[in-house]
Design a protein that fits this description.
The strands form 3 sheets. Strands 1, 2, 3, 4, 5, 6, 7, 8, 10, 11, 13 and 16 form a 12-stranded mixed sheet that branches. This protein has 281 residues and is α+β, with helices and mostly antiparallel strands. The protein is globular, with a radius of gyration of 18 Å. Strand 17 and strand 18 form a beta hairpin. It is built from 6 helices and 18 strands. The longest helix is centred in the C-terminal third of the chain and has 11 residues. The two termini are 30 Å apart. It folds into 2 domains: 65 residues, no CATH class; 205 residues, Alpha-Beta Complex (Fumarylacetoacetate hydrolase, domain 2).
Length: 281
Amino acid sequence: MKLATIRHRDQTLYGQVSGDWFYPAEAALKTRYTTLKDLITDGALTQLAAQQTRQEDGINLAHVSYLPPIPDPGKIICVGLNYRKPYPVDGVAPPDPSQIILFGKERDTLLGHQQKLETPAGPAAHSFDFEGEIAVIIGTGGRHITADDAMTHVMGYSIFNDGSVRDWQKHSIYAGKNFSGSGSWGPWITTADEIKNPATMSLTTHLNGQQMQNTTADQMIYSIAAQISYASHLYELQPGDIIATGSPDGTGGSRTPKRYLQEGDLLEIAVSGIGLLQNNI
């Protein structure tokens, strides 16, 4: 099942995506669960899945505006340096991190599929970068989760662009990662039952049609299960929390010469089994 939140005729709706159609949650279900996060938190996805998807009740995706699949997520947890790559030391591959590196993002940094990313004002625009990632959405919360049990806490997967302003990362990681409207995720969440082997998911990023990143999830230094377990020892994970699992080599800041985002660029990030996240700059 693919889960999305959209705007249509001045209404915010959540529901299922099938082919080229969006099927909103029925009125009774939306009355009980106002948002997709509410539905996930109560473990009620089966109620949405049980709805009939008759085409006469659907909305053509060409006529919707995408929002982040969960517009009001809980924690947005990002993993840094989780693929082997030369960045941030030009030309010199750093050693693997001895521990999982985490940082957080604020909700208003992230837009939806097909929304225009906001170029930072002033000098920050000169180092505005992209990072294609696989996102994990927590469905069942918990604390001190073991790695062996971690994948049972996953509700689904999505596509994530960890927009970054590299020069501001020198001020602090938080500053460089939290410019408003600099990143995105979506276009929907694919539920975990449709991803038979998460380690085989492939990720590719194209900028104006040129491939910039290409990897598979099994190339992560720390697995998805290890990330969930580690994060759960810091704080209690909650339904609707997002873990962005790290970005491979090929970002603009890792290139010679560097290729940062510019107004008019088209950024496309694809993950197998999920789809395509597309944003203009």
